[in-house]
Write a structure and sequence with these properties.
single chain; alpha/beta; four-stranded mixed beta sheet; binds uridine-diphosphate-N-acetylglucosamine
């Protein structure tokens, strides 16, 4: 796609100003699939323009929905859903294409799809999704790399217990159970804000979901869902990334259109590093990095409300220039340190041993040619390059564009010297 493009960053510019945070990718994608369940035209505002949301719209078009974008509003007309197959090429583009499974089973009772792709963070099984759907009455078989899923007489409610609070599995269960017969009780559900956002949308459409955002969710199945208008929540990971960028340059920024309460899992660590943070009503957050220099203690990625795995890489970039040693323990994904060798090229001192990384702060980073290997790791390279002396060249932008809308424009608007060539 944009594999030939590069970001050129001249580092050591202090970031200053006001920046608006776009809608959350990880909310927009399940919401776009949820629109399949609503008989008619749903309107999603604050929907980020990303390659992943484009891919979700192409899946919607493929199965018969009419999808159009105007600014940050996406309209999905799901009056007619006739396709039951998601082509391999679209499934491979992103892992979250798997959430179309619950929605399509709920709407048409049938779905044929291949195993999902997405960022390579290690093996990413979907056993929890499939086991839950089977317990709800779906027959699922695997042939030649394709999953054939049928809910002949419709899905029914069930008592489900997840062995791990998987975000995607929780989403698939909400989607599948919204119009299933009877009540579904889900234990050890993921508690991410994106789950609550999905439940909000479905409830506006007429679903009866109670407890989303908590560990136990109860879903009383309803006959049919009607479309509604909904606004996607702000992207807490994008907000966190831009804060890392501001703090590593000892800058001072105000984020607008963000929900600071969704960022408690990491904003306290910014403060432990010496940042000053004020939150205002109306989704505003002021952050000053003038005194940021203390390496934070051990950082362990955890399901929400713990420290998010998605902010691990940008936060590690921030720690590369702090005074002292930080230890990162990645508990969610097995292969999520692919940014480390590239950070080292930029002058960082980082050692990896399995799922643990030790970062020894250095006085300065130096510009270099680096390559993103996945989305958040790519964002980490941008954060580090902003603090590196001289010029850096970042390639692999097809990964960064999956989750950050016009990253160079956003950073330039607060004083970064960054351009795409
Ligand atoms: C979602 C997010 C992703 C984030 C992750 C964890 C989207 C589009 N993506 O991904 O950005 O990094 O949550 O916060 O929302 N697992 C299984 N079996 C399963 C499902 C998951 O073993 O059936 C394991 C995974 O391999 C992984 C862990 O559970 O080790 C977490 O996965 P999960 O919470 O499902 O993440 P995703 O929904 O893929």
């Amino acid at each position: 796609m944009n594999d030939s493009q590069k970001l050129i960053v001249n580092g050591c510019r202090r970031l200053e100003g006001e920046l608006c945070v776009h809608g959350a990718k990880n909310s927009a994608l399940p919401l776009l699939s949820a629109a399949v369940l609503a008989h008619g035209e749903s309107v999603l505002h604050n929907c980020p323009a990303l390659t992943d949301t484009d891919a979700a719209c192409r899946i919607l078009s493929h199965i018969g929905c009419k999808c159009r974008r105007s600014g940050d509003t996406v309209t999905v007309d799901a009056s007619n859903v006739f396709g039951a197959e998601i082509p391999d090429s679209l499934m491979r583009e992103m892992r979250s294409s798997i959430v179309f499974l619950g929605a399509m089973l709920g709407r048409t009772g049938h779905c044929r799809l291949s195993f999902p792709g997405g960022c390579d963070l290690g093996t990413r099984p979907i056993d929890l999704h499939l086991s839950a759907l089977k317990q709800m009455g779906a027959a699922i078989s695997e042939q030649h790399g394709f999953l054939e899923c049928n809910a002949g007489k419709g899905l029914h409610g069930a008592k489900l217990v997840l062995s791990f609070p998987s975000v995607g599995a929780t989403e698939n269960i909400l989607l599948a159970s919204a119009t299933a017969k009877g009540t579904t009780e889900l234990h050890n559900a993921a508690r991410e804000p994106e789950i609550a956002d999905l439940a909000d949308y479905l409830n506006k459409c007429g679903a009866r979901i109670h407890g989303a955002g908590e560990s136990v969710i109860v879903i009383e199945g309803v006959e049919r869902l009607a479309p509604c208008e909904h606004s996607v929540i702000p992207d807490r990971i994008v907000a966190g990334t831009y804060l890392c960028a501001a703090l590593i340059t000892h800058g001072e920024v105000i984020l607008t259109h963000c929900f600071p309460e969704h960022m408690n899992g990491f904003s306290q660590l910014f403060e432990a590093m010496g940042a000053r943070i004020y939150t205002y009503g109306g989704g505003k957050m002021y952050v000053s990095g003038k005194k940021v220099n203390i390496a934070p203690p051990t950082i362990r990625t955890m399901p929400y409300p713990g420290f998010p795995t998605d902010i691990q890489a940008p936060f590690m970039a921030l720690c590369t220039t702090a005074q002292g040693t930080s230890v990162f323990v990645e508990t969610i994904f097995e292969n999520r340190f692919r940014h480390v060798p590239e950070l080292v090229r930029l002058g960082a001192s980082v050692k990896t041993e399995g799922r643990v990384c030790v970062v020894q702060g250095v006085p300065r980073l130096t510009g270099a040619k680096v390559r993103a290997a996945e989305l958040r790791g790519g964002a980490a390279l941008v954060v580090a390059a902003l603090a590196a002396e001289g010029t850096s060249e970042i390639s692999g932008l097809q990964y960064i564009d999956r989750g950050y809308e016009n990253i160079e424009g956003a950073l330039r608007s607060i004083g970064a010297d960054i351009k795409r060539v």
